[in-house]
Amino acid sequence: IISTIIVYQQLEYIQTKNIGFDKDQVLVLDETYALNGNQEAFKNDILQLAGVKHGSQSQYLPVSNSSRNDNTFSKEAFMTEKNGINMQVWKIDYDYIPTLGMELAGGRNFSKEFGADSNAVIINETTAKMLGYDDPVGKYIYTSDGNSSNQGIALSIIGVVKNFHFETLKEDIGPLCFRLGQKPNGMIFKISGASMAQIVSQIESKWKKMAPDMPFSYRFLDDSFDEMYRGEMRIGKVAMIFSFLTIMIACLGLFGLVTFMTEQRVKEIGIRKVLGANELSIIHLILKDFLKLVFISILIGSPLAYYFMHNWLQDFAYRINIEWWIFTASGFVAIVITLITVSYQAIKAALMNPVKSLKTE
C-alpha cells in the first residue's frame, strides 16, 4: 500500500509539474521535407485556419525522443578544454517560443526587425548560470567555426529563456541555446478553442494538395511527453494490480484464520459468556490477537517500503518527498481492512448461544 501510494504520487507529480512549456493541444507534423520548399507557404495557410493560434517550423521538440545537436561554446574568444561548455543547439524560427508557451527571463525573442539575429543566441537559465553571468543579455559567447583553429565565432546573447524540461524528470535541466534557423523536417501548431478533429482534417486536406505523394501523419506533443514515462506508467499499473491482489489474498487468509480460531475457541467463548462476558468483550478478545499481528507487520513493512521506494525515487532528479502521513494512512487502511475482514466472524462468535457450544460437555 505504501509503495503504491508513492508510485502514484510520483506519476501525478510528473503529470502536473510545471515543465516550462505548454504541451497540451500542440499538433506535431513530421517529415515536412515532402513539401519541397513550400514549408513556409504551408505554415502560413495553416495559420489562417480558425482555432490555430501559433505555428512554428522546427523539428526540435522538448521531449527526449526528438532531434538533438550538441556543440561547444565558451565565454572566451579562444576556446580551451577548461573554458568550453558543451550544450545542445536548437534551430528555431521566430514563432517557436510563443508556440510552445515558453517564457523569457530576460532579453527578447528573435525578431525580423533585427537583421543581426542570425548571429544571435537565446540561452536557458542553466547556461547563464554556468557562464557565471548575472545578466547575460548583451554579452557574447563563442563557438567553433568547424576549422582546426580554436578561434571562436562570436554570438550575441539576446535573451534568456526560463528553464524548461527537454528530457525526462530523471535528469537535471542541461545547458541549451536557440539559434535562428529553420529545419525543413518538422512543424508544430498550437490549437486553441476549436474541434481538434476538424482542424486535423483541414490540415490534411491542405497537405494532400501540396504533398500528394507523401502520406499525412501527425502526433500530439502531450502523447510524445507521456511516451517518455511509459515505463513508469507501467510500473504504476503493476503496483496497483499487485497491491490489490495482495490485499485480497491477505483478506482471504485472515478470514480463513479467524474462522479456524473461532471454531477452536467456541467452547471458551461459551464459558466466558456464561460467566458474564458481554458480546463487546468477546469481539475485543478475538480482534486484539489479529491487530497485534497487523501492528507488527506495519513496524516491519514501513521501513522496508521506505528503503525500496527511496531508492526508486533516486532515479528522478525531480521527485516528491516521502511524507510521514503515507505510512500513517497505509497503516490505518491495513487496520481497517483487518477489522472489516475479522469482524464478521468475531461478531458471529460473540452472538452465538453458549448453550449450543456447551451442550456436549
Describe the structure in your own words:
The protein is of the alpha+beta class. Helices cover 47% and strands 16% of the residues. The protein has eleven helices and eleven strands. It has helices spanning 2-16, 39-47, 96-99, 125-131, 196-210, 221-227, 230-264, 266-274, 279-313, 324-351, 354-358; strands at residues 26-30, 52-56, 70-74, 85-92, 104-107, 120-124, 140-143, 153-161, 176-180, 186-191, 218-220. A six-stranded mixed barrel has the order 3-4-9-6-8-7. It has a four-stranded antiparallel beta sheet with strand order 2-10-1-11. Helix 1 runs antiparallel to helix 7 (230-264), helix 1 crosses helix 9 and helix 9 (279-313) packs antiparallel against helix 10. The radius of gyration is 32 Å and the shape is elongated. The mean pLDDT is 86.
Topology (SSEs and partners):
Blueprint: H1 2-16, E1 26-30, H2 39-47, E2 52-56, E3 70-74, E4 85-92, H3 96-99, E5 104-107, E6 120-124, H4 125-131, E7 140-143, E8 153-161, E9 176-180, E10 186-191, H5 196-210, E11 218-220, H6 221-227, H7 230-264, H8 266-274, H9 279-313, H10 324-351, H11 354-358
Helix pairs in contact: 1-7, 1-9, 7-8, 7-10, 9-10
Shape: elongated
Strand order of the largest sheet: 3-4-9-6-8-7
Rg: 32 Å
Give the proportion of residues in helices.
Answer: 40-55%
Q: Tell me the β content.
A: 15-25%
Total helices: the number is 11
Mean pLDDT: 86
Order of helices and strands: HEHEEEHEEHEEEEHEHHHHHH
The major pleated sheet works out as: 6 strands, mixed, barrel
Sheet/helix structural class: alpha+beta
Please provide the count of β strands: 11
Low-pLDDT runs of 5+ residues are none
Separation, N- and C-terminal Cα atoms: 46 Å
